[in-house]
Amino acid sequence: MYEEYQAIEEFMEDCMDLIDLWEAKFAGQDEPSVPLDEVIKELNKS
Questions:
Q1: Residues 4-44: pLDDT tens digits?
Q2: C-beta neighbour count of 33 within 10 angstroms
Q3: What is the helix, strand, coil percentage profile of the chain, to 5?
Q4: What is the dihedral of CA 5, 24, 41, 35, to 10 degrees?
Q5: What Å distances lie between residue 40 and 6, 14, 22, 29, CA to CA?
Q6: CA distance linking residue 16 with residue 11, whole number of Å
Q7: Alpha-carbon distance 45 to 1, whole Å?
Q8: Has residue 46 got a pLDDT over 80?
Q9: What's residue 32's pLDDT?
């Protein structure tokens, strides 16, 4: 019985993680993208 509960709990946690990823993906969809070369230049400044 405990194993079934644990499996359901893990499945629910995985679902919540997927929801968080989905929300993060679409939250920034309207923001302008940054070209890769600008990102590389910015990283090299550090």
A1: 999 999 999 999 999 999 998 888 788 888 899 999 999 99
A2: 8
A3: 80, 0, 20
A4: 130
A5: 43, 33, 26, 21
A6: 9
A7: 56
A8: no
A9: 86
> Residues of 14-25 as b/e, b for ≥16 C-beta within 10 angstroms?
eeeeeeeeeeee
State how far the Cα of 3 lies from the Cα of 40, in Å rounded to an integer: 47
The identity of residue 12, as a single letter, is M
In total, the chain counts a number of residues equal to 46
How far the first Cα of the chain sits from its last, in Å, is 53
Distance separating alpha carbons of residues 46 and 29, to the nearest angstrom: 27
C-alpha 33 chain-centroid distance: 17
